[in-house]
From TrEMBL:
Name of the encoding gene: atpC
Organism, scientific name: Latilactobacillus fuchuensis
Family in the record: Belongs to the ATPase epsilon chain family.
NCBIfam families given in the database record: ATP_synt_epsi (TIGR01216), PRK00571.1-3 (NF001846)
Subunit structure: F-type ATPases have 2 components, CF(1) - the catalytic core - and CF(0) - the membrane proton channel. CF(1) has five subunits: alpha(3), beta(3), gamma(1), delta(1), epsilon(1). CF(0) has three main subunits: a, b and c.
Source species, domain of life: Bacteria
Subcellular location: Cell membrane
Full protein name: ATP synthase epsilon chain
Bilayer topology: Peripheral membrane protein
GO MF assignments: ATP binding; hydrolase activity; proton-transporting ATP synthase activity, rotational mechanism
Length: 144
């Protein structure tokens, strides 16, 4: 096989534009059914993604994994291209930990308020906001 056939192109796009575009030996995504690892020459697949850490093993630095916090979306793999369309995505190196901690505190306060008011819609929104904030914190600290 030619070298190009053992390489996977990984790109992540959000409504704000391209967040990530690199060649990789493997990508691991938080699929709805659990963690899903994709390597070159994988069969075509489309899968929904949930809030979580996406990891990329790049070909130009085999000992390093890029970590990206994503907040839902989907991934399509075809012809050695893994295209991820996410609601939002942030590389670990770009996450502002103070901002993420503030978002976590706001979400915790919103959960408490929604629980006291028995507002189930607001409670769900606050729980999702907390999950997103925790994901960003964990990816920044690479604890996932």
């Amino acid at each position: 096989m030619a070298e190009g056939q053992n390489v996977l192109t990984v790109n992540i796009v959000t409504p704000s534009g391209i967040v990530y575009d690199h060649r990789a030996s493997m990508v691991v995504v938080p699929a709805m059914a659990g963690q899903l690892g994709i390597m070159a020459n994988h069969e075509p697949i489309i899968t929904p993604l949930e809030i979580g850490e996406l990891r990329v093993k790049r070909t130009d630095n085999p000992g390093h994994e890029d970590a990206i916090a994503i907040n839902g979306g989907f991934m399509e793999v075809s012809h050695n291209i893994a295209s991820i369309v996410a609601d939002s995505a942030e590389r670990a190196r770009d996450i502002d930990i103070d901002r993420a901690q503030s978002a976590k505190q706001r979400a915790e306060t919103a959960i408490k308020t929604a629980s006291e008011k028995h507002d189930s819609n607001e409670l769900v929104r606050a729980q999702i906001a907390l999950q997103r904030a925790m994901n960003r914190i964990n990816v920044k600290n690479h604890l996932l």
